[in-house]
Amino acid sequence: MKLSELGEFGFIRRLRQQVSDGPGVRLGIGDDCAALELPPGELLLTTTDLLIEQVHFRRDWTDPRSLGRKSVAVNISDIAAMGGTPRHLFLGLGIPAATEAEELEAFMAGFIEAAAEYGAALVGGDTCRSAGPLLISVTAQGSVPAEELVRRGGARPGDAIYVSGTLGDSALALDRLLAGAEPDPWLARRHHDPTARSGLGRALAAARLPSAMIDLSDGLLADLGHVLEASGVGARVELGLVPLSPAFRAALAAAPGLVELALAGGEDYELLFTLDPRHEPQLQRLAAEVGVPLTRVGRIVSPEEGLQILDLQGHPYRPTRLGFNHFQPGA
Amino acid sequence: MKLSELGEFGFIRRLRQQVSDGPGVRLGIGDDCAALELPPGELLLTTTDLLIEQVHFRRDWTDPRSLGRKSVAVNISDIAAMGGTPRHLFLGLGIPAATEAEELEAFMAGFIEAAAEYGAALVGGDTCRSAGPLLISVTAQGSVPAEELVRRGGARPGDAIYVSGTLGDSALALDRLLAGAEPDPWLARRHHDPTARSGLGRALAAARLPSAMIDLSDGLLADLGHVLEASGVGARVELGLVPLSPAFRAALAAAPGLVELALAGGEDYELLFTLDPRHEPQLQRLAAEVGVPLTRVGRIVSPEEGLQILDLQGHPYRPTRLGFNHFQPGA
To answer: Which residues are listed for Mg(2+) 5 binding in this entry (chains A, B) (predicted)?
Structure first.
């Protein structure tokens, strides 16, 4: 069935039957606004992301269910980076008229499934037709006790720099797709269906461990750069410490230049955070509890030293690019 | 200057210099999320809207400053319809690479100017390039004391139905533009730069007058239809009572069929609300204080009677269409 046969209000009606509101939702889908309650005394966190067909995704590369899941994860990742608990999601969709209702339902099934996994409720949105590409706009709200909010600007010289998981997997999958090849299924999943580190971000914040935190969406160097700018510090990153997956290492063995994808590829949706090295033993216990590998990749230094990357021999390494910028020529 | 020369982060940096955060904003633009405080005990209201070039607007018909202002107003209108106070705005922009930085700055100037007029702060967003049309995604947050929240579902038989302002002006301007004609400047402004009835919605809610309220974005009949559905009631609307502007009346005298634009044209961004007729004297005092004309257009009836429209002779009137549906064939 084409969406034009179901109609806008038919689509919204079907959607309302699929979602459950959850705690704190006074009014979900179906009025002019959602009306929501937050835990008393907690700060409201809000983030918004656009995903545009042909810019952020291609429908011939991803299945709609994964696309729905990813639309949730990339936003929840920002809530996680502030130490927050995800609560509410809003979805704006600009839909080409020829879209099959089944494709949209698979997208929505993935969206609602992922929202439930992170404990967030879909409580509002907007649907309209698009004359061009499929457009996805997601706004996520979470909350955090004010004293546990983690910002980008708190890194201090001497702090250790940690990242979760492994880097470059998503960018390597994209690199393969752009070359017309089929990526390794595990890598493909890291690209099409990433997991936001929601539990980890919350646990780190609740333990008051990070001095600064950010999620890795633009690539390690670009996002670390944001932390350095906000904190007024420099950093030394050791290439040999950057955590890589077995699939990534296998590709790297054949093509050493791929290391750049782990530094500047983007879309890792891992967390990068800094902490006082005295807290590292506590951090290791927390990592074991949460079940997410955490790896120290470098150290915060004085602002005069800037951002340095050291290769395996301890020599300065110069990456050819620093990260993703949407308006760069050729980006 | 093209946006590609300024760059994504250059654009965001410029933007940060232009916005001021205002009360309750712990963290505005520049971290993974905005971190916000709401007045204790108030509900969080949130709404989101997509505006897509060629679907919702044409850049050859509107100037960028008005487009920025309208992007704010259409969202604030939803906050007003719940009786809320506007607080925060989030802006997602998908920007064609060839866009002039000057055009974008005019858009942003309009956006920030309108936000300030409604007392809301721009505190976050997302910018990326668009391979196709200009895409605007706005999320607005407001708050309302829980006991003053106005929903769609509270209309009761016997309630009077009121609308603010005049209806059909925006649709008439669009009708002219679609016909290749230049609309009357006042009508054009009602279309390109509408005013959300923020002060009115808040005052009505604070006085606990409306039993139900909605903003008129899809047209009188469609939006009244949402109220009837949510409330489980019917309504009788008198065509002769629908408030029309002098410019609209002048056009109507030449082409009586245009009356449909006042019933089903959409984009009025006026408020429709219902209230117990015993409160009408109090309502008239409030209207005078707020300075917004309010007009009774009909009455809520039992659900069996459905939605009836009566013409000037009191006979049933059948409109040819009921309102805007984004996925209707030919919509």
So the answer is: 218
Which has more pLDDT, B329 or B167? B167
**Using the 8-state DSSP alphabet, how is residue B239 labeled?**
G
Q: Which residues from chain B sit within 8 angstroms of residue A81, using beta carbons?
A: 32-33
Rounded to the nearest angstrom, the minimum Cα separation between A8 and chain B is 6
Q: A139, B46: Cβ pair inside 8 Å? A: yes
Dist. CA B114–CA B19, nearest whole Å: 12
A47 annotated among ligand-binding-site residues: yes
Q: What pLDDT is recorded for position B111?
A: 97
B309, HSE (Cβ side, Cα atoms, 13 Å): 21
**CB nearest to B37's CB, from A43, A84, A327:** A43
* Nearest C-alpha neighbor of B56 from the set A135, A46, A6, A100: A135
pLDDT of B129 over the 50 cut = yes
Inter-chain residue contact A327 with B8, CB threshold 8 Å: yes
Nearest to B235 by CA among B262, B260, B272, B265: B272
Report DSSP letters for B253-266, one per residue. HH-GGGHHHHHH--
Q: Is B267 annotated as a binding residue?
A: yes
Per-residue pLDDT, averaged over B172-184, amounts to 95
Tens of pLDDT, residue by residue over A15-58, are 777 776 778 899 998 899 999 999 998 999 999 999 999 999 99
Q: What residue ranges define each of the domains in chain B, with the CATH number in brackets?
A: 3-148 (3.30.1330.10), 160-310 (3.90.650.10)
Q: Cα dihedral sign for A258, A264, A270, A273?
A: positive
Among A306, A307, A324, A188, smallest CA distance to A266 is for A324
Is A152 known to sit in a ligand binding site? yes
Place of tokens 């879909």: A122
- Cα separation, A179 vs B199, in Å, equals 56
Q: B125 labelled as ligand-binding?
A: yes
Query: Is position A245 annotated in a ligand binding site?
Result: no
User: For residues B307 and B222, what is the distance between their CA atoms, to the nearest angstrom?
Assistant: 10
Provide, rounded to the nearest whole percent, the portion of chain A with pLDDT above 90. 82
Interface contact flag, A95 B327, Cβ < 8 Å: yes
Separation of alpha carbons B113 and B117, rounded Å: 6
Q: CA of A30 to nearest chain B CA: how many angstroms apart? A: 9
Q: How far is A326 from chain B (nearest CA, A)?
A: 5
Q: Which residue of A has its CA nearest to B42?
A: A37
B294 to A263, B40, B86, B122, B238: CA distances (angstroms): 60, 32, 22, 31, 15
Residue B126: burial class (beta carbons within 10 Å; 0-12, 13-18, 19+): buried
Q: Write out pLDDT tens, residues A88-101.
A: 999 999 999 889 98
**Interface probe with A: pick from B26, B44, B216, most Cβ of A within 10 Å:** B44
Q: Is A106 helix (H, G, I), strand (E, B) or coil?
A: helix
Encode pLDDT of A124-176 as tens digits. Answer: 999 998 988 999 999 999 999 999 999 999 999 999 999 999 999 999 999 99
The verdict on a CB contact (< 8 Å) between B38 and A44 is: yes
- The 10 Å CB-count burial string (b at 16+, else e) for B311-324 is eeeeeebeeeebbb
- Identify the weakest region by mean pLDDT among A195-199, B52-56, B84-88, B227-231: B52-56
The Cβ of residue B186 has, within 10 Å, a number of other Cβ atoms equal to 13
